[in-house]
Specification:
The chain is α/β, with parallel strands linked by helices. It is built from 16 helices and 22 strands. It is globular.
Length: 499
């Protein structure tokens, strides 16, 4: 079973066997484009080229051919928006990345009269620069060529899984134009209850329905097409599974029961709680979103806490400040000190996401004294992720009425033992890492495998999950609360920076 993980910083293709064990993998980074402060873009054509390269690379490393795969699934950075010419496949502009803040003015206008929660009852989302709908509007409002093509029915919109699926199944020669329910739920255009595009919101944003993809289940036995024989797989393989990256991690962690939660530590940090077959409205600044849908079964919903900057802060320390030369070095640097020395780092580089939703916030380092050194800064960088996760858990406990008792974790940062122990300490609950921490790609493979019968059902997938390590809280409860109150003071200092 194959899965393409189209992430914010890289593309990865994995091949897994029936036990969920990874038997082949290849990865390639793509350029991060920053045209001006607050703006962030990707080149969709580079991402498509890299996708082809990693598919071929993983097959070669595993000594397999595309025809050896039963099916493939796709998982992707969510909300990142591309609009392209359906006749040529050429994008009208670079993809606007989920972290980009250029739509701030559009969002302010949308919320001016009825507030940030104007569409929340339908979409489960606040009005924020994070989501795809305002990004689509920005492209159509600022690029006359894109608007003309959209009005003529010659333009297509997609988040990145839509873009890749379209190319893999034929591109301009009849590629399938679909998005799964999880990605559609991140556009701010889909009604959570009907699982269809909302005509009223489309009209308000000036988005023609004809550019939007067909909404499909995350795991779909009908399949959306087969890969081209002259494409990177070299064979016609069913394409029938897709999930936004965080929902894919939920499936990969087999959080199939109501009340189960996982946290993914990647470029950003995302905590999802399975709330069952009914959407739970949030009153604490969380998102109500789709967890997954298998075929025509009732969809499963989630509460989500989204943190914009997590692993990206470690990259920033490496690339912008040069305090480390590789991301893993941060743990050794942070271990040179006992604590953060009183320094707190709030990485509100593109505003604050959940539970604050403050686009006016910007990053701060507070509590600096002559005592603080680079080890303390490294520690504050790691702790920022743990504190932001605590913010989410506090909100989630209030919304769901259920206290978190343990946290399953995955993603690139879970190899950092210092961070995992501090996460357990600051939450006061055990933190559990699975043996296969690449659960995002695994979830996409599971979605496709369920669709073609490679796995019989969720029970069989649960048998694949295995614990690798558990961290238990070892911090005095009074100290935990003192640290957290200092963090809340630091967050407060980020507000009202942008007028």
């Amino acid at each position: 079973m194959g899965a393409l993980d189209q992430g914010t910083t890289s593309n990865r293709f994995i091949i897994v066997d029936h036990s969920g064990r990874i038997i082949g993998v290849d990865q390639k980074e793509h350029e991060q484009i920053f045209p001006q402060p607050g703006w962030m873009e990707h080149n969709p054509l580079e991402i498509w080229r890299n996708s082809q390269d990693v598919i071929r690379g993983a097959l070669a490393k595993a000594n397999l051919t595309g025809s050896n795969l039963a099916a493939i699934g796709i998982t992707n950075q969510r909300e990142t928006t591309v609009i392209w010419d359906k006749n040529t496949g050429k994008p009208f502009t670079n993809a606007i990345v989920w972290q980009c803040t250029r739509t701030d003015q559009i969002c302010k206008e949308l919320g001016r009269e009825q507030g940030q929660n104007r569409f929340r009852d339908k979409t489960g989302l606040p009005i924020a620069t994070y989501f795809s709908g305002p990004k689509i509007k920005w492209i159509l409002d600022n690029l006359a060529q894109a608007r003309t093509a959209a009005d003529k029915g010659e333009a297509l919109f997609g988040t990145m899984e839509t873009w890749i699926i379209w190319w893999l199944t034929g591109g301009p020669g009849g590629g399938s134009h679909v998005t799964d329910v999880t990605n559609a739920s991140r556009t701010m255009l889909m009604d959570l209850h009907t699982l269809d595009w909302d005509e009223e919101i489309l009209q308000i944003l000036g988005i023609p329905r004809q550019i939007l993809p067909r909404i499909v289940p995350s795991s779909d036995s009908k399949t959306w097409g087969v890969t081209l024989k002259d494409g990177p797989l070299g064979a016609g393989i069913p394409l029938c599974g897709a999930l936004g990256d965080q929902q894919a991690a939920l499936v990969g962690q087999t959080c199939f029961d109501q009340g189960e939660a996982k946290n993914t530590y990647g470029t950003g940090c995302f905590l999802l709680l399975n709330t069952g077959h009914f959407p739970v409205p949030s009153r604490q600044g969380l998102l109500t979103t789709l967890g997954y849908q298998i075929n025509d079964q009732p969809p499963v919903y989630c509460l989500e806490g989204s943190i914009a900057i997590s692993g990206a802060l470690v990259q920033w320390l490496r690339d912008n400040l040069g305090l480390i030369t590789s991301a893993p070095e941060i743990e050794d640097l942070a271990k040179t000190v006992e604590d953060n020395g009183g320094a707190y780092f709030v990485p509100a580089f593109s505003g604050l996401f959940a539970p604050y939703w403050r686009s006016d916030a910007r990053g701060v380092i507070v509590g600096l004294t002559r005592y603080v050194n680079k080890g303390h800064i490294a520690r504050a960088v790691l702790e920022a992720t743990a504190y932001q996760t605590r913010d989410i858990v506090e909100a989630m406990n209030k919304d769901s009425g259920v206290e978190l008792t343990s946290l399953k974790v995955d993603g690139g940062m879970v190899g950092n033992e210092l961070l995992m122990q501090f996460q357990s300490d600051i939450l006061g609950v055990p933190v559990i890492r699975p043996k296969v921490s690449e659960t995002t790609a695994l979830g996409a493979a599971y979605a496709a495998g369920l669709a073609v019968g490679f796995w019989s059902g969720r029970k069989e997938l649960r048998q694949n999950w295995a614990k690798d390590k558990t961290w238990h809280p070892a911090m005095d409860s009074a100290l935990r609360e003192t640290y957290y109150q200092q963090w809340k003071k630091a967050v407060d200092r980020t507000f009202n920076w942008v007028d």
